[in-house]
Amino acid sequence: MTERIMSHPILGDLPHKEKVSFTFDDQLYEAYKGESLAAALLAQGIRTLRVHEETGHPRGIYCNIGHCFECRVNINGLDGERACITPVTEGMVVKSGKALPTTVRDWRKHHGK
Amino acid sequence: MGNKVIIIGAGPAGLSAAITLAEKNIGVVVIDEYLYEGGRLLGQLYEETPNKWWNGIAESERLLARAKELNVEFSLQTSVSDLEKIDQDWVLHTNKGVFHTKQLLLATGAAESPFPIPGWTLPGVMSVGAAQVMTNVHRVKPGKRGVIIGVNVLSSAIAMELQIADVQVAAITLPAANLLTINSSNPLEVMNSLLYVSHMAPSPLIKIGSKFMKNEILKKLGIRFYPKDGVKMWGIPIMLRKAVIEIVGKDQVEGVVLATVNIDGSIVPGSEKRIDVDFVCIAGGLYPLAELASLAGCPFHYIEQLGGFVPLHNEQMETNLTGLHVAGNITGIEGAKVALAQGKVAALTIASKLGASVTQIDIQQAIENVETTRANAHIQFHPEVLVGRQKMKEIWAQTLSHTLS
Ligand SMILES: Cc1cc2nc3c(=O)[nH]c(=O)nc-3n(C[C@H](O)[C@H](O)[C@H](O)COP(=O)(O)OP(=O)(O)OC[C@H]3O[C@@H](n4cnc5c(N)ncnc54)[C@H](O)[C@@H]3O)c2cc1C
Ligand code: FES
């Protein structure tokens, strides 16, 4: 579905860059050193970065430049980090955002209300 | 640190200001939350004149090299989240600690407005600027084949950039009419605004058409007989008589539902048709990113021609708050060259306050340079930007006379 643009008619060939590895939800991935986490994941076909805290619906990047916070993930234990403006570093541990419990609603659901 | 000028934003306005200050031997720190210096200049790529490309990455590299040569300091990945005045100092709160300065320049640029359309939260839906940055800066395709919703200068420019990178754009269409898309979903309004960018269109049909279209009756006829499948620009159909009414997909974008619209923007019942795409761009236009000026306590004015709410400022790029200046798209939406020219004005104004050898004539010349740059701009985001600039000038003069009296 997505791929890297290795050569470009105006911008030229993609310069050779060092590779680093990181994990996203315990899966190992590669990235070019210094590129954004969102770009590294998209290049490997990953668009869903989290699910909505309440509805559980999938979400990915929207603005790609740090304005909208749609791409928030957990990076090295820190919640709410923006994948679109965070450079990947070697050994980075990334977790997607999960749905949070909605206790009152869940109770209602399980009790047929 | 307290003696240095701080600039928030390493876009063209911030970089040019930093260079100008450093050339006057004034210490500068540039703060930016992005990964690289260059701001929104980085993603820009278009042919200014045949075979002469405006390459934002190359321009950013050139500016950065000059700034580094002059020992400008940069603090990247640093988000400024609050701003306050304590005694004589502006105090900045960031994720990398607190910064102090007496002279602060806000060059935070612009942001994109979204159109809320059913299905717009699906992964694969992004702002048109997001697709530009993925493609030109990160060199990752946003998808294989997409649709751009919103017909305007930026979306046409980016559609072409996607095409150059071998990303297919199935169509540029209108958003379905709803309370938030009023002007952008009305074919006639959009046609009106497009007439101002017709010089960019290589399609002779659009160029010739637009000459006739200055007449209101012809315009109505034009939109009535506008081909339902669009007019092609760079081989991409621009569909002024179709709107996306829904984005569909289970876990990510799988397609959009297009419908034919009447000239008032209402949907023709039964005309809905699904097309398959794997990404969607929303192009709702740009507005000044000015929250920090608001936190600082600047008064704001809504000026449509400048893209929305703009902090009160004068031609010298001063706000009415001591030590607080603005430059670039925070003052109104325009192209990168205007931002570069404005950055220089702001820097000269600051430098003269700090006692550097800057004359009023230097500042005046820099202001005139902003005006000529504007007059020669390749991309005009609002056709009446000059009217907007004039409005701000008048508001400033009025405010000043109130404070003096
Ligand atoms: C998505 C997008 C695409 C665009 N594409 C084009 C185009 O193709 N052609 C064109 O002519 N114009 C384009 N523009 C208009 C663009 O705004 C100008 O061309 C020009 O880049 C404006 O320069 P600037 O220096 O004012 O701001 P910018 O270039 O936007 O730079 C502002 C910088 O400030 C930083 N910043 C903002 N807030 C904070 C904060 N709180 N803390 C830390 N850092 C912060 C940002 O990270 C950014 O790097 C685009 C604008 C956007 C938003
Ligand atoms: S995608 Fe908008 S902040 Fe990351």
TrEMBL record, chain A:
<dbReference type="InterPro" id="IPR036010">
    <property type="entry name" value="2Fe-2S_ferredoxin-like_sf"/>
</dbReference>
<dbReference type="InterPro" id="IPR042204">
    <property type="entry name" value="2Fe-2S-bd_N"/>
</dbReference>
<keyword id="KW-0560">Oxidoreductase</keyword>
<dbReference type="GO" id="GO:0016491">
    <property type="term" value="F:oxidoreductase activity"/>
</dbReference>
<dbReference type="Pfam" id="PF13510">
    <property type="entry name" value="Fer2_4"/>
</dbReference>
<dbReference type="GO" id="GO:0051536">
    <property type="term" value="F:iron-sulfur cluster binding"/>
</dbReference>
<protein>
    <submittedName>
        <fullName>(2Fe-2S)-binding protein</fullName>
    </submittedName>
</protein>
UniProtKB/TrEMBL annotation, chain B:
<dbReference type="GO" id="GO:0016491">
    <property type="term" value="F:oxidoreductase activity"/>
</dbReference>
<feature type="domain" description="FAD/NAD(P)-binding">
    <location>
        <begin position="4"/>
        <end position="343"/>
    </location>
</feature>
<dbReference type="InterPro" id="IPR023753">
    <property type="entry name" value="FAD/NAD-binding_dom"/>
</dbReference>
<keyword id="KW-0560">Oxidoreductase</keyword>
<protein>
    <submittedName>
        <fullName>FAD-binding protein</fullName>
    </submittedName>
</protein>
<dbReference type="InterPro" id="IPR036188">
    <property type="entry name" value="FAD/NAD-bd_sf"/>
</dbReference>
<dbReference type="Pfam" id="PF07992">
    <property type="entry name" value="Pyr_redox_2"/>
</dbReference>
<dbReference type="InterPro" id="IPR051691">
    <property type="entry name" value="Metab_Enz_Cyan_OpOx_G3PDH"/>
</dbReference>
